[in-house]
Amino acid sequence: MAVTYEQIRNFMQGYFIGYSEDCQLPERQHVMDKYYAPDIAFDNGVSGREIWYRICLSHPTWQDKVEPRRLCIDVESLTVSAMVTATFVERGTGRILQQIGMNAFYTLSVDDRGDLKISRLDVFLESNLEKVQTMMKYLRG
Length: 141
Fold this sequence. Notes:
- This protein is of the alpha+beta class.
- It has helices at 5-21, 49-56, 129-140, and strands at residues 36-42, 62-74, 79-90, 96-110, 116-125.
- The longest helix is centred in the first third of the chain and has 17 residues, at 5-21.
């Protein structure tokens, strides 16, 4: 069965909500199994869903919320490029710590059950050195 544009669009819309609301909470992180392939690879060398999950839990004082601005979906190659805004929000206060634009390129696959999964993610950050440095400060703790 061929994957449709609508299936990919719905999958990605659910993914962005799930990442922002579930992926960074230990009790909800398992929800993301429906989006990430077990052997997902990232352009920064991270490989594997479990390693990625540990990284997502490494900043308990703030939450990363990702909002898509534009999606470009290629059904034939099962790829999605997304212009997104990442907002780092302090848990407890809701104070915005940083906002940064990103271009994210998702490679999708279809698993044995016929479900879409993200199998690779490449991220390119906004070319504002000050914002990138601030973001890295938060990521390092």
